[in-house]
Amino acid sequence: MDSPDRDNFFDRFVDRKKIFDKQDCIQCFQRYDVDRDGYLNKREFRQLLSDIFCDGSQPYKLTEEQEKELFTLLDQDQDGKISKTEFLGNCYYWLKQILQPNSALIVVDVQNDFLDGNLALRNCPAGQDGLGVIPAINSVLDTVNFELVVCTRDWHPADHISFAENKHIRPFHSTSQITQREAKVHDTVIFEGPPMTEQRLWPTHCVQGSWGAEIHTDLKVPDNSVFVDKGKNPNVDSYSAFWDNNKHSQTELVQILSKHNITDVYLCGVAYDVCVGFTGLDAMDHGFRVVALDDACRGVDIKQIDEMKKSLQEKGAIIISTCKVKDIVEGSDRPPKLGIQTARNVALARTLVNNNKVHPT
């Protein structure tokens, strides 16, 4: 089959030089329906995949499993071919998000206490210097145009459950392997509640209104940045910027991202294995594509950092260095893994819409 010229079609949409619309989607279908039978067969679809997923110069090599998953997700009636109707109904949203994503940078907890204060990462088991995230984040902010920048903050009351010095305030559950008397920083204990709560103990940090809770002054914070505070409830911790650890209450983050039509979130900050990672996992649960900036994150424990990276990747996130951010945000670098996450989101949205039609509220 003749290979369509990728540069003459998909690359015209890079950095929004042209807005991808329904007419473009029709032209795309016609371009890849080489035998003109009104369907994309698996061979024709494979050529489209080869052209859409590239790093700006070379196509990515998709595995057979990746190709199969994408075809299955977008073949709505599962007849082994994608009709023009299916393509315009499903692939339009799929392609538009791949070509022209709306991206937010989420800067997680770059606060004094984590960099220079009571819970400075350099004093944690991994020995990583949290100050190292600042030059990487500042460089990204200088070179990449994000739709939105969000800064999250731990914002704890003085009697917060996570503080080791507060361990005497709440009774321990009988199943806690560590007693109230023995418990110390970095131990994981179980409080009686209600509800019964497993909690890792930390040094007192990021107390509301304190110097330790302030964003580090060396971090560049754009004037239109949005701040999201978490961990305000004294009786439950909040590693994720979306939810508390018990998943009982949300922050306003998902509403903020939705208001700005965000599709992709780029994560950086501290701590990689704690608040950065759990924010990423929850972001994918809410349907956002997730990109973690490896050189702009620092963590607490090496083993747990590696475990968190694995969890993020298994769920659909990609982990990159900051030098690649600009091309992905602008759409010239289009990694397959993000495209697969988009297809999953499109399929899920279609299922929810169809269920609502069958079972209206």
Automatic annotation (TrEMBL):
Enzyme Commission code(s) on record: 3.5.1.19
Protein keywords: Calcium, Hydrolase, Metal-binding, Pyridine nucleotide biosynthesis
Pfam families assigned to the protein according to its UniProt record, in alphabetical order: EF-hand_7, Isochorismatase
InterPro entries, per database record: EF-hand-dom_pair, EF_Hand_1_Ca_BS, EF_hand_dom, Isochorismatase-like_dom, Isochorismatase-like_sf, Isochorismatase_Nicotinamidase
Chain ranges of the EF-hand domain: 20-55, 62-97
Keyword Calcium: yes
GO molecular function, one term: nicotinamidase activity
UniProt entry tagged with the keyword Amino-acid biosynthesis: no
UniProt pathway: Cofactor biosynthesis; nicotinate biosynthesis; nicotinate from nicotinamide: step 1/1
GO biological process, one term: pyridine nucleotide biosynthetic process
PANTHER family, per the entry: LD05707P, PYRAZINAMIDASE/NICOTINAMIDASE
Family membership noted in the UniProt record: Belongs to the isochorismatase family.
Protein name according to UniProt: nicotinamidase
